[in-house]
Specification:
Blueprint lengths: L22 E4 L9 H6 L10 E6 H6 L3 H11 L9 E3 L10 H12 L7 E6 L1 H13 L5 E6 L2 H7 L7 E3 L2 E5 L7 E5 L8 H18 L1 H9 L1 H6 L2 H21 L16 H10 L6 H19 L4 H14 L11 H15 L5 E6 L2 E5 L4 H17 L1
Helix pairs in contact: 4-5, 5-6, 6-7, 6-10, 7-8, 7-10, 7-12, 7-13, 11-12, 11-14, 12-13, 12-15
Bound molecules: nicotinamide-adenine-dinucleotide and zinc ion (ZN).
């Protein structure tokens, strides 16, 4: 039997640390006349010019040929000490497939002799932000990280939160830490060069958060589906901002910012999405896998009697309406997909907790999934795909 130690033999160590970081929405973050980045860097507390290492996504750099010059000109204009030229890391899942990106960033931090009051400024998509953020968290037990997310998904979800990580041992985000960034600077201008496929993939996270948290946002997404599908800038900016705010609200008010419990309500549709990403050999984008995972769980919720067929049809129409996929052939391996349930539980720890839909804008947590019914749900998605 477990027995609590005698209080006289124990000291309970207790302290709390408040966290605060700005998430700024701006336009032209590297324009020397835009003071936002300089402001974010001007908090080193070291009594001297801020020191920074700039690391960018190579996919971003390919679309912005003047990026290295823009960073150098910005640093010169604002008296920011930069020891090295702009460093590039692979964009996309390649950044977090193994430890090579993390190793490279750690080496650059060591070479630049960055201390804990110095900054790593990371510009890129969610995958490289995860890997670079992990390296920044490890060096000296944490140098400051400023994220400049450059994809829709990174601006509305991945880049604004407190997590980083890389894939290992066949699992998504097996290695990683919870470390809040020093600042996040969301610049809508980057989205202009994002390929349509990646831009649309990011809309999936907005649909997700609308579905589980905010019906009126879901309905706004429905009415804006064609504008979002075609990348209309005003609708895209509104969608990014509202989605980021809902994610931030959740982190601040859930009472569990570092996910110590077993629930992860914002990961609606993600248990299968993470598995589908891996099974597809990462040919599926994260947002695309989330789209399929959300529809699968919506179908399951219909079979469970939680969700009406009419609501399911609206979810499907919105996903299809913005141009998201609702099927991938990896679903033809249902036994492997279903392994994602236990992997999801393991990643969070404790009891299996899956968020399902009760209604549009309303999630519900369940602790068991009927695997036969989930197989049937996969079958129904297959039938839908054949019918459409
Ligand atoms: N840390 C978190 O809380 C969190 C949350 C959600 C998702 N994620 C992770 O985010 C990753 C997905 O991120 P993503 O959707 O941003 O995609 P991504 O990082 O995989 O990038 C997609 C592609 O866009 C390119 N790119 C980036 N910015 C560009 C630009 N402005 N113009 C042209 N090309 C550009 C990249 O080089 C890459 O080829 C996944 O690994 C996922 O696990 C993390
Ligand atoms: Zn996600």
């Amino acid at each position: 039997m477990a027995t609590a130690p005698d209080p006289s033999a124990m000291h309970v160590q207790r302290f709390s640390v408040p966290f605060e970081y700005p998430v700024v929405f701006t336009d032209g973050v590297l324009d020397p006349s835009n003071g936002t980045l300089a402001w974010a860097l001007d908090q080193s507390g070291a009594g001297r010019a801020p020191r920074a290492l700039f690391v960018a996504d190579d996919g971003l750099a390919a679309c912005w040929p003047t990026l290295a010059d823009d960073v150098a000109a910005y640093a010169a204009a604002h008296d920011i000490e930069v020891d090295a030229p702009l460093r590039l890391v692979p964009g996309g899942e390649a950044a977090k497939r193994d430890t090579s990106t993390v190793d490279a960033v750690l080496e650059w931090i060591a070479q630049a002799r960055l201390d804990r009051h110095a900054y790593v400024v990371a510009l890129g998509g969610g995958a490289m932000l995860d890997a670079v953020g992990y390296a920044a968290a490890l060096a000296h037990r944490g140098v400051r990280l400023i994220r400049i997310p450059t994809t829709v998904l990174a601006q509305n979800d991945a880049g604004v939160g407190v997590k980083n990580g890389i894939n290992a041992f066949g699992s998504k985000n097996f290695l990683g830490t919870f470390v809040p960034p020093h600042a996040v600077l969301n610049d809508i201008r980057w989205i202009g060069t994002l390929p349509d496929r990646d831009r649309v993939a990011g809309v999936a996270e907005a649909i997700k958060v609308g579905l589980i948290r905010d019906r009126s946002f879901f309905e706004w997404l429905e009415s804006s589906a064609s504008a979002l599908g075609s990348g209309e800038p005003g609708a895209t900016a509104t969608m990014i901002r509202r989605c980021a705010e809902l994610h931030l609200q959740h982190i601040a008010s859930s009472g569990d910012p570092f996910e110590r419990g077993s629930a992860r309500p914002l990961d609606y549709g993600h248990w299968s999405a993470h598995k589908l990403e891996l099974l597809s050999g990462h040919t599926l984008r994260h947002g695309e896998a989330v789209s399929i995972g959300m529809l699968l769980d919506a179908q399951y919720a219909v079979l469970e009697g939680f969700l009406s067929s009419a609501a399911f049809d609206r979810v499907r129409s919105l996903l299809v309406g913005v141009g998201l996929p609702i099927w991938h052939d990896a679903l033809d391996r249902p036994e492997q997909v279903l392994c994602g349930l236990e992997e999801f539980r393991e990643h969070l720890g404790g009891e299996l907790t899956i968020t399902l839909l009760r209604d549009l804008g309303r999630g519900v947590e369940v602790h068991a999934i009927d695997t036969d019914r989930m197989r049937e749900s996969i079958g129904r998605l297959r039938a839908l795909r054949i019918a459409s």
